[in-house]
């Protein structure tokens, strides 16, 4: 299949041949949901912790004798019903990561790109050609592409491109190694260079 490639400097259109098995796959909502959820779960900190009765300090000796005081039996001062005692069902640090096979992950990324192509939200450019780190350069670029909310993907991270776009909350920049399903779905449009698209095709 063919995709249109915009040469920004010459303002001309060209085409690039891409693999239809990667960029024209049927949409699989269950797979995309599973991979996206797993990716987001890995970013959870999971470091919440509370102390149970064995973790709090003290309590090595029974507070009073077993018999003769008239009070209820007590073996420790660190039980859950005591002040400064341990928590009954104490939360412990946990890992929220979910296992996702490489084939599933690549399949989900491929499906997302296919859906971007179908909905005409994937824009391919020859190169971004940002000479100076100026925000107005990115604004002008987005105006030419007729997009406002976009993820810009390059084969290698360009410092000028990054510095130019970091003040714009609706614009993201990443290279081909940093692509993730949440970012691809989160932006209204995805703008990718021709060189980066070839790398993505090889990766998938």
Please explain how this structure is put together:
34% of the residues lie in helices and 15% in strands. The protein has helices spanning 20-23, 29-42, 102-118, 135-145, 159-165, 181-186, 194-203; strands spanning 2-7, 12-17, 122-125, 150-154, 171-175, 189-193. The protein has a 6-stranded mixed sheet with strand order 2-1-3-6-4-5. Helix 4 crosses helix 5 (159-165). The longest helix is centred in the middle third of the chain and has 17 residues, at 102-118. It is elongated and about 95 Å long.
List the helices and strands and how they pair.
Elements: E1 2-7, E2 12-17, H1 20-23, H2 29-42, H3 102-118, E3 122-125, H4 135-145, E4 150-154, H5 159-165, E5 171-175, H6 181-186, E6 189-193, H7 194-203
Parallel strand pairs: 1-3, 3-6, 4-5, 4-6
Antiparallel strand pairs: 1-2
Helix pairs in contact: 2-3, 4-5
- Proportion of residues in β-strands: 15-25%
Please report the number of helical segments: 7
From the alpha-carbon coordinates, what is the Rg to the nearest angstrom? Answer: 28 Å
Helix content: 25-40%
Arithmetic mean pLDDT: 91
Shape: elongated
- Identify low-pLDDT runs: none
Order of helices and strands: EEHHHEHEHEHEH
Tell me the distance between the termini: 16 Å
> How many β-strand runs?
6
Q: Biggest sheet, open or closed, and with what strands and sense?
A: 6 strands, mixed
Task: Tell me the quaternary state.
Answer: single chain
Q: Which structural class matches the secondary elements?
A: alpha/beta
The largest beta-sheet arranges its strands as: 2-1-3-6-4-5
